[in-house]
Design goal:
The chain is an alpha/beta fold and about 600 residues long.
Length: about 600
């Protein structure tokens, strides 16, 4: 039976329900002693470091098995006192905050169904009176909805949320993304604040997928007019990434632990991070997307035949549609075969074919194992089609399906073009050879550096005599040399301060915030010069280089491949767009190539 069917819910602990007064469990005894108390953890504005609010958390008797919130609520479930204990905790939090006379906002946890029960049984007016009686101003109270899986009626909750909001209270959604919360709940209740579960924020400086999830949640929050709170912030690197993501609020041990006395300001270590000018390095995905979808695949809307269509009827279809290279045979929406136009019409034009076979089903002349391409095919699967031994799709095309049903026809050149476009787009995000960030993340990081007003150094790295090496030894060893540059750059750059990107080919971009960037660049150049020798054969190492053709086809002797880095210092406010910075770095690279291997620093005013 519903706990509230026996005794009306109360938000004061002056009155304990009979179930608590008569309870024999340790939690009931603890409640009768009024032993549980509230501690308060700060919620911090990540934009300026001020304390925005505090969340009330319940503790039991210190040193006992019933001290932490998890143990308390586990006991409440086992003693069948969950709702009673919930409301008891709300009253403890309100009374504790009221005694402190703190001016800031207070977040108090309550399950969605408990809130519905309180409002429906006692009304919002009574609820506000009880809140005021504890010395708490209703407009400074945020009810944080928990236990989302227990919402019995979304419509009732939506109605109650409107009443609560009209009474001056605010609503927050707790632990969004923990597997229980619902996007529908967010959309329907429209809480003022959503707290992102620590699963997505913990170690976010190392997990690109979680970073992208938070970026998506930010877009949703913008649509719903919601502010986000990142929970579980425990490291400086994570705090810096969340700050640079422009999340409004944060909560976690690095900012402040739960304490009896609310914090007036954020912890010093966290404040150092929030105030520094260092721009975080967002984690890269480390891979090219494997889920590229060919939604843009050009589909030829074409009539189809069925299993009863005769050769004469098929001939008529081809004559009526001279643009068709083939016609699919479909049975109840499911493609069965494909008839190639050229092959069919060649047979149909032979002597006596019409007389003998004209009225027979055309299925006999079809390819019964046509190439089927699902509209949402994975790119890797399509690459497999392009490289398979069966290349009939190049002449007869293929059948495009959606959810397994016939959609239309495609041609081999369309497939090649679509796969190429997807691969090129993917390479703009992550280079497929080194998995380093490509052009789009490079530009985005430059924009972030400029938006933050940071001074930084943009470097453009390029290999000298790489083309002769690649022509002489082949692309495989050329790829090894490019990967060597990437490996050395990552080894010598500070992963927390310096950004390493791969423009393409043997061109790289380094964006330094490290003060010792000159030494880092020189170390990359020097170590590359030593380790690249291993990629040449013994004869080349003895000769000091290789004989190969230059760009004009003229045979020449080329010394060992070396690395040039052109650098330019970028000052605050000097440029407005990432393209300008990239252009200056490219000019610096040109100067470095002219001067030979090594580091060349260009004056940005040139």
């Amino acid at each position: 039976m519903d706990a509230f069917a026996v005794a009306p819910p109360s938000l004061t602990r002056d009155y304990l329900p009979r179930s608590v007064r008569n309870g024999t469990g340790p939690l009931a005894a603890l409640m009768r002693k009024n032993a549980p108390y509230a501690v308060f953890q700060p919620i911090v504005d990540l934009r300026n470091g001020s304390v925005y609010a505090h969340e009330a958390l319940i503790r039991g008797e210190e040193g006992s098995a019933l001290w932490g919130a998890d143990a308390l609520f586990a006991a409440a479930r086992s003693e069948n006192l969950l709702f009673e204990f919930e409301l008891y905790c709300v009253s403890v939090a309100l009374e504790g905050w009221g005694r402190l006379q703190e001016p800031g906002r207070l977040f108090v946890n309550i399950s969605a169904d408990a809130l519905v029960a309180v409002v429906q049984r006692q009304g919002c007016t009574k609820l506000v009176q009880l809140i005021r009686s504890c010395g708490v101003v209703p407009r400074m109270l945020v009810l944080e909805l928990t236990e989302h899986e227990r919402v019995n009626s979304m419509d009732q909750l939506t109605e109650v949320a409107g009443e609560v909001r009209a009474a001056g209270l605010s609503l927050a959604l707790d632990d969004f993304g923990d597997g229980r919360s619902s996007l529908r709940l967010w959309s329907q209740v429209k809480p003022e604040i959503v707290k992102i579960d620590k699963y997505f924020t913990k170690d976010i400086s190392q997990h690109a997928d979680n970073l992208q999830t938070l970026q998506a949640l930010k877009q949703i929050a913008g649509i719903f007019g919601t502010q986000l709170v990142a929970e579980g912030i425990e490291t400086k690197d994570d705090l810096r990434v969340l700050r640079d993501l422009d999340l409004a609020y944060g909560q976690g041990y690095l900012l402040g632990r739960p304490e009896l006395t609310p914090r007036a300001k954020v912890k010093d270590l966290a404040m150092e991070v929030l105030n520094d000018t260092l721009v975080s390095i967002f984690p890269a995905s480390g891979r090219v997307s494997r889920s590229g979808i060919l939604r843009g695949l050009s589909v030829q809307q074409a009539p189809c035949a069925d299993i009863h269509t005769t050769n004469d009827q098929l001939s008529t279809l081809f004559l009526q549609h001279p643009e068709l290279h083939a016609i699919a045979i479909v049975d109840q929406g499911r493609p069965l075969a494909l008839v190639n136009r050229h092959q069919f019409m060649t047979h149909y034009a032979t002597q006596y074919y019409r007389e003998v076979h004209g009225r027979k089903p055309c299925l006999a002349n079809a390819n019964h194992a046509p190439r089927l391409v699902e509209r949402d095919h994975n790119v890797d699967e399509l690459v497999g089609i392009l490289t398979s031994q069966d290349q009939r799709y190049l002449t007869e095309g293929f059948i495009v399906t959606e959810n397994g049903r016939y959609l239309g026809l495609g041609t081999g050149d369309q497939l090649v073009r679509s796969v190429t476009e997807v691969r090129l787009e993917a390479a703009r995000h992550a280079n497929p050879l080194t998995f380093l960030p490509g052009n789009i993340p490079i530009s985005e990081h430059i924009e972030r550096l400029m938006d933050a007003g940071a001074d930084f150094v943009a470097c453009y790295a390029d290999l000298n005599h790489f083309k002769p090496f690649n022509d002489h030894y082949g692309y495989w060893r050329g790829d090894e040399m490019i990967r060597l540059v990437a490996k050395l750059a990552l080894a010598h750059c500070d992963a927390k301060r310096d950004f390493v990107g791969h423009v393409g080919g043997d061109d790289f971009i380094f964006l330094f915030q490290s003060s010792d960037w000159v030494q880092r660049c020189e170390a990359i150049v020097h170590e590359f010069g030593e380790r690249a020798l291993a990629l040449f054969d013994d004869a080349a190492r003895l000769a000091g280089g290789i004989h190969a053709e230059d760009r004009h086809g003229i045979p020449q002797f080329f010394s060992f491949t070396t690395l040039s880095i052109g650098a330019v210092r970028i000052r605050r406010g000097q440029y407005s767009h990432a393209e300008e910075v990239a252009n200056m770095a490219a000019l610096a690279k040109h100067d470095a190539k002219v001067h030979g291997a090594g580091l060349f620093i260009r004056d940005s005013s040139d």
